[in-house]
Amino acid sequence: MNAHVNPQIADPVSSGNEISREKLEEIFEDIRSHAVYDHEIHGCLNCGICTATCPSAHYYDYSPREIIQLVWTENLEGIYDAMQEKIWACAQCYTCAARCPFENSPGGLVMIMREVAIKHEMESAKEVLRPFSRVLLKVVSTGNQLAPNMITKEAFPDWGPNVAKVDAPLMILRKAIPMPTMHTLDTAWEVNLRTSVELYTIWEATGVLDQLEAVDENLFDVVQDVMDEKREEWEEWLEEQDDDEDDDDA
Question: pTM above 0.70?
Fold first, then answer.
């Protein structure tokens, strides 16, 4: 591996453990072996168009170009360092991917790096996700967190100064969406029993729940209890249907 890496990486004034070369290589290999890695990076001219058009770069210490360069040059120490804070500043708007002349997607690479950070139980992932336990609970249990009537400029001041300029009949526009169950919180979060069980099965089969347990064990326990209860209700409902069919046959 032609990687830019020292035998050890550590903050000389930190009491934390050193990160070995083997661990850095393992983290990078998890990034590079991701199913969509080759789709997200093809090379880099270092032109900076991605950073120039990146909303997050205007407000945070974040640069899509830096992400691409770190991964493209296999700078293992830099990648690890970026995973401690910088990758969490990306808003996942994919403006970078739309503008890149090489059709790179720094936002896509950030998503991969976030998944790997969670897999390796990095403290940065735990710190970032901890305030979003309510969001994670809603997503896992209902498949949805937001309803259109939650999206208001007052609710999201951190979207930048231009959001204050938004002035449109949003409720009328939202009603034009051909999905009435998405119009309000009550209906957006109303999921039938079978769908809940199917969602839980998907999260379980794809390893999402294992990742959740790694970053927030308390939330994992809550989700586990809720979904086990729903599974029991679903099994009871199926048994009732079988009993009704047996009665009809008799």
Answer: yes
